[in-house]
Amino acid sequence: MDPVTHGIAGALLGKGFFSKRQERVAIFAATLGAVFPDVDIFAEAISRDPLSIVKYHRAITHSFVGLPFFAILLAVLTRALLPWVKRRWPRFHDLESPPLAMLTLIYGVGIASHILLDAMTSFGTRMWFPISRERVAWDLLFIIDFSFTAIILVPQVIAWIYRDPEKSRARAWRMWALFSAGDLLAWLLTRAAAYPFHLWVAGLASLVLAALFFAPAKGGWGFRVTRTQWCQAGAFAALVYLFACSVAHHEALLRAKAFADQHHIKIMRIGALPVPPSWLDWGDAIRSPDGIFESQFDLRAPGPAVFNFIPDSPPNEFISRAFQLPDVRLYWNFARFPSIISFMEDGHPVVELGENRFQDGRRRGPQPFTYRVVFDEAGNVLEEGWLTNGMLQSSMRRMVPQQPPTAPPAKKTQ
């Protein structure tokens, strides 16, 4: 899940369930706790290891094992720094902190929300690290889900609109214009990313937003609803959306199982993966001993899903050598629906491992998390690392090329 959505979720929980006493510090703690686990990206940034995203991201900071320690640490630091903040910025002179136990609980809830939301994506998270290194992935949400983000953000905006009767109308117009522009921007972005949806859907979303922002003014009932109640309603709406996603996920998984049964496929791993932009768009993946079966479909479309088969290359010496490399074994444990391709390129044997968990069938070029090993004819590793553009970036750092034993040590390259 993206960091912005994590922060919005934390703010929703803080306002909905912890804002009655010392509300500003409580809301701050819930929001900071919800984004804190992604602090591990700094380990990736300073590491020279191309596999740092696999090794370090979503590990101890995303773990329920580490949660109590980080919650207590953040609570203690907050209470220690609060007097300095009040002296440094006089406008915060009236800030009061909840008791240490309550503040720790609030931070813990924020961190837990991050862990659970990441577990709902296909990337998954190691929520029991270091006790278990298994990635928990419930496959309910795409990493960026505009619908879910809107569901948890809009109630907070409505609460702000109707906090002041004199400013509510102007605020409603500004927020409707801003959200409608964001709605159009999302349409343009998804179209550019080859995940288009109909323009009339964006228009319908704008009308729904207008109703949500302006309807509570009718009869003045919106002013009688507290911010806590608005945010609690938003939390309930988010749970309803997640339940709908779980029902859709179950239906998509049944289609994959039906296809496997019909064609007598030996299942090594099977999954239904969310595909943007709608909770009704899904991709099925089946890992068999010989390769990957994959499909993408809209649950509203009639008829059975059409599956494509991505065969593995036949076993050979270079595939065997690749799987003796520690980083290839690490990658293989990370991948859920990997494929194995062996071929010749510029006179060198190449073994390429693709992760079809993020296969969209529409993107040109290598898919995210494509890992490559290049050999010489004697079977020595010349280069290994992410394939260029295989991580949705223009270039990736490569690992130190490994030369034959008789050759001098190679210098590190970027």
Looking at this protein, list some descriptive labels:
single chain; 414 residues; alpha+beta; four-stranded antiparallel beta sheet; 12 helices; 45% helix; globular; disordered C terminus
Structural features, described:
The chain is of the alpha+beta class and 414 residues long. It folds into three domains: 3-241, no CATH class; 247-310; 312-386, no CATH class. Helices cover 45% and strands 13% of the residues. The chain is built from twelve helices and eight strands. The protein has helices at 3-17, 23-35, 41-46, 52-55, 67-88, 100-119, 146-161, 168-192, 199-214, 227-262, 317-322, 326-334; strands at 269-274, 281-288, 291-298, 308-311, 338-345, 348-355, 371-375, 381-386. The strands form two sheets. Strands 1-2-3-4 form a four-stranded antiparallel β-sheet, with helices on one face. A hairpin with a 2-residue loop joins strand 5 and strand 6. Helix 1 runs antiparallel to helix 2, helix 2 runs parallel beside helix 6 and helix 5 (67-88) crosses helix 6. It is globular.
